[in-house]
Amino acid sequence: MQAIVTGYSSGIGKAIASLLEENSYKVIRLKSRLNDKKALEKEVKELLKSQEVNLLINCAGVGVFKPHEEISLDKIQELIDVNLTAPIVLTNLCLRSLKKTKGHIINISSIEATRHSKFSALYTATKAGLRNFSLALFEELRRCDVKVTNINPDLTKTNFFEEFNFEPSDSKNAHLIPENIAKAVWEVINFDGVITELTVRPQRLEIKKK
Length: 210
Known about the structure:
By secondary structure, the chain is of the alpha/beta class. It has one domain: NAD(P)-binding Rossmann-like Domain (Rossmann fold, 3-Layer(aba) Sandwich), CATH 3.40.50.720. 41% of the residues lie in helices and 16% in strands. The strands form 2 sheets. Strands 2-1-3-4-5-7 form a 6-stranded parallel beta sheet, sandwiched between helices. A two-stranded antiparallel ribbon has the order 6-8. The protein is globular and about 50 Å long. It starts with a strand and ends with a strand.
């Protein structure tokens, strides 16, 4: 079984890749930058000439939380490219292979895709787009036996928050850890049916200022 996992170098993506490898998956780590569509297309097409893919997990993501007028145009484009365009492009490139293997697409979105938070308009737009892409794609692919799942993690202790002025509380029941999300992904993969959407949250909401 072969899986493409983006965002594999840290955080949730790293935890997912590690768990898959522990369970006999070969994890394919793409080298192209996710915002370089031509390089991505070339790499994936070359890869699929010699092998098929059973699982595509779009996990890479970037964020920004500030007044919208303070966000640079380059940052706006980066969030759209990484959070939304790349998963759509990778799905497009892998879909014929996934139809052959009756595979599974899992998109790691965000709790922000389901609500409307202050200073999160751009991030929410990209993640809500990914969520709705996932849910609509499932309807398209039902007859092809390709599963599609959207997962919305809440606050998770990763390096995602390094550049922000806030982060999840250290209280155990106020944040998730990457391994929690990886375990949820594994349960989704092994579910006898299709979990089209899963929201994973800590019991309490607590953040701390840096």
